[in-house]
């Protein structure tokens, strides 16, 4: 099972996450998030990462700015977390992760048709675009999400205690975590290390297709 740790803001915690086995390191480039990082700072961190896939999270950003940051930070993936359509996604100059919110008229058909390598499924909260730390009704969602043909990352309220439940329910390609690894809105080294130990002790999910 792959692990994406999102909302990185410091070189130390990013390196700790990579050394602990995180597959994706995520940077938030949405200015309204308290996890926002300046591209210049993210570029410094990115230059020191050797193995993890570097992912930039954007929300309805100008496509030219997105691609500028892709080049500046040397991103491997762009995660589109807003209302970006397929035509927009095709203009992104690296691989795409598209976020869908379960409960916001989510359908596997729409996810399958979207031009993205990975599909991320987060909780839907009116007026919120993710990063709430809240989960969705996993049991009711499992049947529809199982119809998604692309590799799926599950997000929303995932922590060390419910990680195994997520795996048993969805058998996902991976999980996306952020808030549960923080203390006072900053990533905790001990929480990152403990979560990664737990993740690595569990069976692997779906393979990348």
Automatic annotation (TrEMBL):
The keyword Isomerase belongs to this UniProt entry's keyword annotation: yes
Catalytic activities: N-(5-phospho-beta-D-ribosyl)anthranilate = 1-(2-carboxyphenylamino)-1-deoxy-D-ribulose 5-phosphate
Pathway in which this enzyme or protein is active: Amino-acid biosynthesis; L-tryptophan biosynthesis; L-tryptophan from chorismate: step 3/5
One annotated GO molecular function: phosphoribosylanthranilate isomerase activity
The EC number(s) this enzyme carries: 5.3.1.24
SUPFAM superfamilies, sorted: Ribulose-phoshate binding barrel (SSF51366)
GO BP term (any one): L-tryptophan biosynthetic process
CDD domains in UniProt: PRAI
PANTHER family from the UniProt entry: N-(5'-PHOSPHORIBOSYL)ANTHRANILATE ISOMERASE
Protein name as catalogued: N-(5'-phosphoribosyl)anthranilate isomerase
Organism listed in the record: Selenomonas ruminis
Gene giving rise to this polypeptide: trpF
């Amino acid at each position: 099972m792959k692990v994406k740790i999102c909302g990185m803001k410091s070189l130390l915690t990013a390196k700790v996450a990579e050394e602990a086995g995180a597959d994706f390191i995520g940077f938030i480039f949405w200015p309204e998030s308290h996890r926002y990082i300046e591209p210049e700072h993210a570029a410094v961190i990115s230059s020191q990462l050797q193995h993890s896939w570097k992912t930039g999270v954007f929300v309805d950003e100008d496509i030219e700015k997105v691609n500028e940051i892709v080049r500046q930070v040397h991103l491997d993936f762009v995660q589109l977390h807003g209302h970006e359509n397929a035509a927009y996604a095709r203009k992104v100059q690296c691989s795409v992760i598209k976020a869908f919110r379960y409960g916001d008229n989510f359908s596997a058909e729409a996810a399958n048709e979207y031009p993205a390598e990975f599909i991320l499924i987060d909780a839907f909260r009116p007026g919120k675009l993710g990063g709430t730390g809240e989960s969705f009704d996993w049991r009711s969602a499992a049947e529809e999400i199982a119809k998604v043909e692309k590799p799926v990352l599950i997000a929303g309220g995932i922590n060390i205690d419910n990680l195994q439940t997520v795996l048993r329910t969805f058998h996902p390609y991976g999980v996306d975590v952020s808030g549960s690894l923080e203390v006072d809105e900053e990533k905790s080294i001990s929480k990152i290390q403990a979560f990664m130990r737990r993740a690595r002790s569990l069976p692997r999910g779906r393979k990348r297709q």
